[in-house]
Amino acid sequence: MGQRAGMSLESRPRPGSANASLSAVALVRLRRKREVETGATAVGADPTEETTGFPRHALSGVMDFLGPVFRGDGRWLGDRPRNFVQEAERKLRLQLDWSRGAQGASESLLRAMSTEPGLMPRVVDLALKEIAIGYPPNACEEAALELDRVLRDSGAEWKVSQVSRRLDFSLERRIDAATSAALDALASEQEPAAVHLAEARNRAYGQHPDAGKAYDEAVKAVEAAVINVVIPNDPTATLGKAIGVLRADPKQWKCTFTRATGDGQSPVEVVIGMLDMLWRNETERHSPVTPITLE
To answer: What pTM value is reported for the model?
Structure first.
């Protein structure tokens, strides 16, 4: 971008280049200027991370990733290049300054990213989803993995998530490695349960958390998995109907665990109870309706 913003995303910087680092420095300087003007600095906190959503020492790597997307270095749709800044303005409901053309609008977006809390992760998430604007198909995965490495090494709360074997990336909140690995393994399948599980994960940890929808998708994932085993040939099957079939004759079914609980419940009965509890507590679907929260 132009000299006024103290950075350049137009000069095609290579990863780790000085231009990309200058972009990050400019974001930090804009944030410091705002601190001086408002005096609003939390004790013991990184004010850059509070505003941008990323640690100060991660910004150069984040800008390395964003540069090609801002410039539109990737493939084109037909003969017309896609303009990421325009798409960001529309999809993120922003109001950018186009009085000085595309360059001014890019600077306007960068200024907003440095001053509006929570905006920068939304921009990065959109850039990941539209990664083909900035990178050719054979370079998309490498770019996304490099951004994930930057975020991991810097201790950021965010990570890059990928739908297995697809150029489908997003930014989500970091969760513990074991849980992440288990979800990745399950989501790599192409079964309906895996699709619902991937959507549940996105609704729980993605850019726009929705606890009710996350729970709904998780229940649908369980429902799809259970129906496939219990009543696979029933076109009107539901989780409630499958629970009824299981409960009617629990001894017909086997479970990995073999020993009963202390109060005499068989492992299959415990599974039935868990399924029933999951189903009945989908309180946004069953009366009386009670909103599901993140707590």
So the answer is: 0.56
